[in-house]
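okkk here we go again. third time trying to get the zinc ion bound version out, last two times i messed up the smiles copy paste (missing a bracket lol). double checked this time i swear
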Amino acid sequence: MPEGDVVYRTARRLGRALDGLALTRSDFRVPRHATADLTGRTVLATVSRGKHLLTRVEGGLTVHTHLRMEGSWQISPAGRGLPPGDVIRLVLANARWQAVGVRLGMVDLVATGEEERLVGHLGPDLLAADWDEADEAEVVRRLARRPETSIGVALLDQRNVAGIGTIYRAETLFLAGVSPWRRVGTIEDLGVIVSLARRLMNANKERPDRATTGDLRPGRSMWVYGRAGRPCLRCGHRISRGEMGTQPQERLIVWCRHCQPGEPTG
Ligand SMILES: [Zn+2]
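finally!!
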């Protein structure tokens, strides 16, 4: 599943193609908005909020999309053929570019004033440009509301903090030396975990090749993610792999039992 850094870059790509130009085509291929037509309206901006994308257009409308598991926005020069297949959910085009939303998990069209209805439940966005100490404190407060939840589950709950997926969860907890199975209420400094996650995501938001180790070489770019069964880069113990949480696609957890003490609790 795309994480906040990928969604952030997607918003930037959409912005470069669409911002400031009038739409010459809009094609909503979702039943709810099949008759919507944004032709003639200028696109104002696309912003990301966690894993959500908000494309604001003239006239007080916002297109809300979410990549979910395998969605993407493909951008190509206007007039190019659309990618074959029946998975296109939305096309937005201007005289220069077309943006094709493929396998999008969500497509909504709402009044810009009602965006909060769609994203108001989210915790602070780790990649927000105006992030400050108050945001970190707010994430800590939200995490602490459910002290019995394991930190691994809590970090993926977008109501606590927006943007983290399985990769940044695994890497953040490794660097913090905290087992994903630890109960939130037993962790003294949740703020350290939040600021680590933010630092990792910010460091990677502008580049497609993620690295949390500072080393872009294959097999060296991540501390634990994708390395189950292989030796820990720090201590040499075998990296563990397990499942946690309820959403099937987000169960995978990898961690080092030696660097991150605290056994699975079921
Ligand atoms: Zn280790």
